[in-house]
Design goal:
With about 220 residues, the chain is of the alpha+beta class. The protein is built from 5 helices and 9 strands. The chain has a 6-stranded antiparallel beta sheet with strand order 1-9-8-5-6-7.
Length: about 220
């Protein structure tokens, strides 16, 4: 079965992977509210992209209210849910592929490259895949390769969990960082994420403590 992409992004974020802020929206107003910069002293519009679930975003980031409304109206003609996402900086795009062989082995690779490794790939496997991606005189600095190795290890751990048969992860590499913007995964069941506790989730009893004596 197809795993919900928003749930897959949340699961990756729980695994320490940097993902783009995303949300399903059910109206143009909902999309506009999503585009407002959070925690800002004054309302600011943040460029977003809109796409239907299961499809890759196309076109330029939507940087105005009119652009968001037009894009939403165009997508709303279909039957699929509409996903809003913060637009990410332009940069190198790579697609990490995870597949299960007929023998039941899980393999991880970067699309368009020959090297693939059995999951869990380990540090040596991550290094081999990253070196293959940045081979043939690629000018990316060693820091970028180490960043890719770190990401590949975490994607390997995500794919290694039971219930996931295949995964396709779209990654934007930019400014010595990265952002995962899309996850297409299939498995035997949907991901079940436990509720995430707040910052003080383990200290609720402290709210009931009142020191003795005059206050």
């Amino acid at each position: 079965m197809v795993i919900d992409p928003i749930e897959a992004l949340k699961a990756l974020a729980r695994s320490g992977v940097r993902t783009a802020r995303s949300k399903y929206v059910d109206s143009a107003e909902d999309a506009l509210a999503f585009a407002e910069r959070r925690n800002a002293r004054d309302p600011r519009f943040v460029p977003i992209v809109l796409r239907t679930a299961g499809e890759t975003a196309d076109g330029h980031p939507l940087a105005s209210e009119d652009a968001v409304r037009r894009a939403y109206d165009r997508l709303a003609n279909g039957s699929r849910r509409i996903l809003a996402q913060i637009a990410e900086p332009t940069g190198e795009l790579i697609t990490v592929i995870g597949e299960t062989t007929p023998a039941g082995d899980k393999m991880l690779a970067v699309q368009g490259h020959m090297v693939r490794r059995r999951v869990p790939i380990g540090a040596a496997g991550a290094e081999a895949i990253a070196l293959d991606v940045h081979a043939y005189g690629h000018r990316e600095p060693p820091k970028t390769r180490k960043l890719l190795e770190h990401l590949l290890l975490r994607l390997s751990n995500f794919f290694d969990r039971p219930g996931i048969d295949a995964v396709r992860v779209l990654v934007h590499l930019h400014d010595n960082s990265y952002t995962v913007t899309d996850v297409a995964a299939t498995g035997s069941h949907q991901l079940h994420l436990p509720p995430k506790l707040g910052k003080r989730g383990h200290d609720r009893k402290g709210d009931e403590y009142h020191p003795a004596g005059r206050q």
